Amino acid sequence: MISVFGHLNPDTDAITAALVYAHLLSRSGTPATAYRLGEPNQETAFVLRQAGMQAPELLPTLPAGSPVALVDHNEAAQSAPNLADLDVRYVVDHHKLGDLTTAQPAYLRFEPLGCTATLLLKLHREAGLSVEPTDARLLLSAVLSDTLEFRSPTTTDADREAAAFLAPIAGVDDVTAYAMQMFAAKSDLGDTPAERLLKMDYKEFTFGAQQWGLGVIETTNPGYVFGRQAELIAAMQAEKVASGLGGILLSVVDILGETNRTLIVSGAEAEVVKGAFGVEAEGQVADLGQLISRKKQIVPALEAYFSK
Amino acid sequence: MISVFGHLNPDTDAITAALVYAHLLSRSGTPATAYRLGEPNQETAFVLRQAGMQAPELLPTLPAGSPVALVDHNEAAQSAPNLADLDVRYVVDHHKLGDLTTAQPAYLRFEPLGCTATLLLKLHREAGLSVEPTDARLLLSAVLSDTLEFRSPTTTDADREAAAFLAPIAGVDDVTAYAMQMFAAKSDLGDTPAERLLKMDYKEFTFGAQQWGLGVIETTNPGYVFGRQAELIAAMQAEKVASGLGGILLSVVDILGETNRTLIVSGAEAEVVKGAFGVEAEGQVADLGQLISRKKQIVPALEAYFSK
Fold it and tell me: Which structural domain, as residue segments, surrounds residue B9?
């Protein structure tokens, strides 16, 4: 039995890709079970409810040598804590290749697409398998989530084509209305503790000799988030110390306005942000304008800055 | 223009995969040129003559940031010397994933198959492109070469199916007779210097803190190779010192007998061979029996030994 899972601090693409790929592997004769590496966010919970699906179980500690499939990630820092001891047989991902290695020749599929879901649709087509309605709903939701309904610069024509193909199978007549419902669910942060808001979509990256934490909150209601700015900055400061980070940023992305205002905790981050983006922070907020993609815009700029 | 190349000390799969993948990329709208990272061996020269093709040019030193496609390898030690400065956009390979990273999301295809050629046939099918006769000849040759005409334990059903599909397109009526011609060409080592024999199919691997060099000579005429044993062991000893290796092995694989007798240079290698394979060397030869695949049998056993 192959265990299939997406990254820590899972988003909609990570959770749905695990469910759909486990199903696809099983239908192709390789029994597989989906797991998650953290709590689904509000958007993912909404998507699962709409699809009539339960969230996958939390990944237990797998014995060394267990066969696994990674979806929507490949770096150890974003994966199961004992990844180095596991037997990575399959990877389906749309991120750059990081520190992954495999003990044996494996099945790896990486493409520079807006989301893992678009690649999973391609795998169905290659296998000659139809996409079942529930899977279509999960994949469509992941495309809309990861591309911010095609607003993100990571969006490709293949992502648009995938959404158009999947919507009728999923029974979604009005894709824009459905996307707005997803984004509203994601933005309904209620009394979520600041620590959880920071970690909802949060990844660590290595830049030169430093480890940085980069969080993103995508919301249709940035005012709510900035209303909790002091709490969030305290949570960032605590995480920075606890994890010995060189820096920590929390980007608040206004989905509808397609803008990014990023919270910073100290002068160290302010200096890096100035060097990497040419932006002067005001107070503890740096206006990064239309740089809304961590993967395609924020991380490459920081990598370029630190490799100077 | 994407530069496409296989590994150092190229074999038939490495050279033909570069030619065929460059052609496939170009036909798909991405202009690409094939290169090689060393001299074609006698078998590859025969295959190219039969296909009416020239060998690709030797890879020049590419400027930093040049876009490249790697075929039939992924590890830096087997690639262009300045790989770390190049922009890896595509990888098509059937080896385990080593130390490769990419600066951006890229297109990666890895499958646990007997050769890269079988995966390249799959890519043609996915792209809806027919395989042209010259490409079919190159791919068929690579399948036969890497699987030792289906004798190697790395052979999969997909490799057999690929060869059966490609042979009529390539105009090869008798696949076994053609394979014998290829193996005879490979075994016609004439007065090739010992240093070149050692490096003809040679790769370095990292086991724990040690770097090892593992050469293979696949031949229908092992008697010829053992007739040059003293010269070969001297070349191995020189390479071991020059490259600061922890150990060096040269496996002489009898293609038709499907057996492997491996040359060793010192007691250090003898001890490792005994620990990893349970085989006592006699003189400077260790009889590894039917372990004829470096990738699937020799390297995993050495990795297991060194990770104890």
Answer: 2-184
Do B23 and B155 fall within a single domain? yes
Query: In terms of CA atoms, which chain B residue is nearest residue A95?
Result: B105
ipTM of the complex: 0.87
Cα B173 to Cα A134, A144, B52, B177, B251, distances in angstroms = 49, 52, 17, 9, 32
Query: Residues B220, B173: one domain?
Result: no
User: What are the backbone angles phi and psi of residue A79, rounded to the nearest 5°?
Assistant: -120, -170
CA closest to B110 among chain A residues: A108
| Cβ-nearest to B106 among A96, A295, A300 | A96
Q: How far is A90 from chain B (nearest CA, A)?
A: 9
Domain contains B273 = yes
| Residue B98 forms contact with A (CB below 8 Å) | yes
Write out pLDDT tens, residues A149-181.
Answer: 999 999 999 999 999 999 999 999 999 999 999
Q: Please report residues of B whose CB lies closer than 8 A to that of A83.
A: none
Distance CA B32, CA B35 (A): 10
pLDDT tens digits along B192-238: 999 999 998 999 998 988 999 999 999 999 999 999 999 999 999 99
Q: What is the count of structural domains for chain A? A: 2
Contact (CB, 8 A) for A214 and A251:
yes
Outline where chain B has alpha helix (H): 12-27, 42-51, 116-126, 133-146, 157-170, 175-187, 194-199, 222-226, 229-242, 267-277, 299-306
Max Cα distance, chain A (Å): 56
What's the rounded Cα separation, in Å, for the pair B302 and B308? 10
